[in-house]
């Protein structure tokens, strides 16, 4: 088996999901991969580093696989698809891993929560189109609206981690999204398809 940082990260994340982040040691990861600690340390500096980019693969798939977006009935639905995909991965990884990612970034900004250019550009275009089609009535700058949505998402995610709730934050986020964008009444309940 060829060792790569991606393979180490995938293996570690699976162990974290199975046993809990704090219950997995560097030695456990090495044992699972059949490598030594010096080999692992050629690719990563510490355990925290293995969870800092949990969203990157999700965002890459979203931007590359735009067929889901093109197939939707409205631009607002396209936004729902984007955020429902992020929520789905958040649920998959759970509050344990996201709590650790928040902690790592609070110690030192590791840029896990920075805006990703490709997703930002995509969402700005979608918001502009939704404004033009009067699907959303908030006519503020689309870039500012997207940033507000992204920060709202992160805030809901952080509260979910703090409260350690089994139930995800998806409905409360979608309701916030409706309010922030001033979604047309025609689309107000569309989020329920993504619960």
UniProtKB/TrEMBL annotation:
<dbReference type="GO" id="GO:0003677">
    <property type="term" value="F:DNA binding"/>
</dbReference>
<feature type="domain" description="HTH tetR-type">
    <location>
        <begin position="2"/>
        <end position="62"/>
    </location>
</feature>
<dbReference type="InterPro" id="IPR050624">
    <property type="entry name" value="HTH-type_Tx_Regulator"/>
</dbReference>
<keyword id="KW-0238">DNA-binding</keyword>
<dbReference type="InterPro" id="IPR009057">
    <property type="entry name" value="Homeodomain-like_sf"/>
</dbReference>
<dbReference type="InterPro" id="IPR001647">
    <property type="entry name" value="HTH_TetR"/>
</dbReference>
<feature type="DNA-binding region" description="H-T-H motif">
    <location>
        <begin position="25"/>
        <end position="44"/>
    </location>
</feature>
<dbReference type="Pfam" id="PF00440">
    <property type="entry name" value="TetR_N"/>
</dbReference>
<dbReference type="InterPro" id="IPR023772">
    <property type="entry name" value="DNA-bd_HTH_TetR-type_CS"/>
</dbReference>
<protein>
    <submittedName>
        <fullName>TetR/AcrR family transcriptional regulator</fullName>
    </submittedName>
</protein>
